[in-house]
Amino acid sequence: MNDRTLARRAGTALGLASMLAIAGFTVLGSVFEYPQILEQPTAEILALYRANQVPVMTWFVVLVVSAGLMAPAGIWLGRMTGGRLGRWITAVGVAAATVQVIGLQRWVTMVPGISQDALDPAQRADAESRLEFRHVLVGKVIGETIGYALTATFTVLAVVALRRSVLPRWLAVVGYVAAGLIATGVVIPLLEWASLTNFAGYVVWCIWLLAVSALLWRVPALTASVDVA
Prior knowledge:
single chain; about 75% helix
């Protein structure tokens, strides 16, 4: 597989990941008040979830697919880059996809049963406790905190790999800025304002992914391998 094929496959995966993420977060923000709803009492989260369960589940599946696309994108970018840097890009891309899929899938696989159990007065307290536990462990720790760190790392590695052959200097800077802002999400439990910088980082990151995707589609055939230093 030559560089052009790998670049176009990676570009397609990154572009789709960005568009699906934008669509998913936009719709979920409308029908489920996501992610602000996560700061509300558990009973309110479950009530709003039940009231809009089908669209909420559908659009969380969209976000799961979006997150999962980071794995093939990392694999193809890694192969395109080659060497030790390429292996790191692949490993971190797959890891970032994995933890985010784990974090997001709870809304499709775990929460439906919990939300129904919460309708039974005898099970309500236990159901709410289970949701809170999964929200902290699966959502905040795995999907968010670890996911933020891995996504930021993947972005930096991608910029390093592409900056000399694909990315113009300004777009490389935008990638670094997006990565830095996303990484601030790691300290959200300690600094509340970090949720705003993290959100801004993801907005910039989604736009950056679309730009990178377009550039990867323009990589000529038989191009030299990207920077592996």
